[in-house]
UniProtKB/TrEMBL annotation:
<keyword id="KW-0249">Electron transport</keyword>
<keyword id="KW-0813">Transport</keyword>
<dbReference type="InterPro" id="IPR050597">
    <property type="entry name" value="Cytochrome_c_Oxidase_Subunit"/>
</dbReference>
<dbReference type="GO" id="GO:0020037">
    <property type="term" value="F:heme binding"/>
</dbReference>
<dbReference type="InterPro" id="IPR036909">
    <property type="entry name" value="Cyt_c-like_dom_sf"/>
</dbReference>
<protein>
    <recommendedName>
        <fullName>Cytochrome c553</fullName>
    </recommendedName>
</protein>
<dbReference type="GO" id="GO:0009055">
    <property type="term" value="F:electron transfer activity"/>
</dbReference>
Amino acid sequence: MTPIYPNLAGQKEQYLISALKAYKSQERKGGNAAVMWGLAAGLSEQDIEDLAAYYASLEPGS
């Protein structure tokens, strides 16, 4: 884990979906948003849902 990056394990699935969609559309700004815009740009709706489900299923802090 790197302290400058958030730990997504255990985050609420709907929050992660919302955040990834906001990065994809470049509506979310600040911090490392520009990096996330590039990463989220190529994600499909299914990719976003799958990633959110995966991170939500992990134990917080793992």
